[in-house]
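Q: What changes when zinc ion is included in the input?
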Amino acid sequence: MIDMRKIGFYLLTLGLLILTNCSKNSDNDSESQKVDKSLNLKTTGDSANDILSNDTYTKLLIEIGYVTDFKPTTESISNFTEFLKEYTFKENIEVKYKELPSPEKDSLSLEEISELEMENRTAYTSGETLAIYIYFSDAPSAEDNEDEDLVTLGAVYRNTSMIIHEATVRRLSARSFSITTADIESATMNHEFGHLFGLVDLGTPQVNDHNDPESENHCIVEGCLMRAELQFGRSSKKGQLAASKASNLSGLKSGCSLSGNSVLQLLSNKSAKGSATVPLDTECMLDLQANGGR
Ligand SMILES: [Zn+2]
Ligand SMILES: [Zn+2]
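A: The predicted holo structure follows.
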């Protein structure tokens, strides 16, 4: 015997499901049509003044897309937001997390990183909110050269886009007794964000010349967070510079790729003096202040 009331109920449920699915789809469509990504597709350093001052944007929204199990430590995210509050006038800073599946890659090129951002990023600049995207990856950089001990910890490649190679960060911190994952994450995020601030001469004009002639867009002052030494390591081979410059493909410009050993070096110097946080020097601070920073 067929129960007609049951069939009627099923049909009704089916109808409702189709209806809700349809309305969901049309909502999504109209939402994606509204998203204007153009403000987040500029070159590294282009949004320096917008990040530093409150003139156009009063809120900073930081979206952290991380591969499952590769979430950054809460300590480094708190260090990072403190860093932002120290050098910019932004006080309204929101961090939102988005867990992502692994792209299942052995390594990632800047182009692949950019494609992943296009797929996964949900926060874009609009109204009074300036959005930043940071991707914490489970794959190392395609430019790494393990034999020469040249590993990339992080890079910036547009006005509001950053990659942290979290797998590499953790492998590096496992090699040190005194330097933690949070220390390396903080130093990498802060240094790379320094380039989004427009340092050095990357969108924020210099007050006094302190750009390192041997390493464009890095500071020449000893002990500064934006010091060139951080990038390649002065004492190391020239090949490292060539490797890092190779990322200038298809219009995507990496402000810098931060090398692992130099970060360890700088952090070990710092922890000997009692603090693992690396500050900006006076010259870098003067530049930021002249471009709307605190
Ligand atoms: Zn750099
Ligand atoms: Zn400096």
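Observations recorded in class: Residues 4-34 form the longest helix (31 residues).
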